[in-house]
Amino acid sequence: MEHTWELLSVSKQQGSSLLARGLSAQIEDKVKDCTKYPDYAPVQQKEPLIPSPVPDMPWEMAASDIFLFEGENYLLLVDYYSKFIEVTKLKDLTSQETIEILKDTASQQN
After folding, report:
1. What is the 3-state secondary structure (H, E, C) of 38-89?
2. What is the domain extent for residue 32?
3. Number of domains in the chain
4. Residue 46 class from Cβ within 10 Å (0-12 exposed, 13-18 middle, 19+ buried)?
5. Rounded to an integer, what distance in angstroms lies between the CA atom of residue 101 and that of residue 92?
6. What is the reported pTM?
7. Which residues contact 44 (CB under 8 A, 6 or more apart)?
8. CA-angle at 48, arms to 46 and 52, nearest 5°
9. pLDDT for 20-41, tens place per residue?
10. Cα gap 45→54, rounded to integer Å
11. Is residue 75 part of a domain?
């Protein structure tokens, strides 16, 4: 078990010759069963957060999302300036319904 990580490195270097013999899958299974694998496993690099610019006025910039809650669809709107959240229940998931709600919200907020 101690040398399984080295075997995986060799298998990746050897490439098709080990694949042809069907050993690659066996080696990977052996490595994944190793108790030390999590310590050396490749980790996906975290992406840095990119801050959004703060607008000068309320509702100048907003974010939206549609989500399902207890079997009903809702449209979520967030104002970037004030962080105000508005949630509206959708009658259906058509673009026409969504655009209508966005227009109504924009007319109420301006």
Report:
1. HHHCCCCCCCCCCCCCCCCCCCCCEEEEEEEECCEEEEEEEECCCCCEEEEE
2. 4-40
3. 2
4. exposed
5. 11
6. 0.54
7. none
8. 145
9. 456 667 777 777 777 766 676 6
10. 28
11. yes
